[in-house]
Amino acid sequence: VQLQASGGGLVQAGGSLRLSCAASGSIFSGAVMGWSRQAPGKQRELVAHITSGGFTNYADFVKGRFIISRDNAKNTVYLQMNNLKPEDTAVYYCWINTYWGQGTLVTVSS
Predict the structure, then answer these.
(1) How far apart are CA 85 and CA 76, in angstroms?
(2) What is the Cα–Cα distance from 87 to 85, expressed in whole angstroms?
(3) What is the pLDDT of residue 104?
(4) What's the N-to-C CA distance of the chain in angstroms?
(5) CA–CA separation, 84 vs 103, rounded Å?
(6) Which of 54, 56, 98, 110 is deepest in the core (most CB within 10 A)?
(7) How confident is the model at residue 22 (pLDDT cuts 50, 70, 90)?
(8) What does the pLDDT read at residue 37?
(9) What is the DSSP string of 9-29?
């Protein structure tokens, strides 16, 4: 399984970004997909995940600001990030089961 993440970049506080992650290979149709992030000097933390049936779960620090979604036909998971804050600056990683993408950097300036 390979995952290719895209959509990161530099944005001002209060702005928005949309991350995408396409998975290829032998993927179980019922796999959970999600996003985690790692800020400099900090441990990796879960941001959100979504089941094949659309059930979602968010970390408290992104609730009301981020939206996770997926397109099962395309094996793609998305993360819409709104009202971004400087503390959201991190490398964002997508994952499916135990497989991880390469990460995409999100930088939020104040």
Answers:
(1) 25
(2) 5
(3) 97
(4) 37
(5) 18
(6) 56
(7) very high
(8) 98
(9) EEEETT--EEEEEEEESS--T
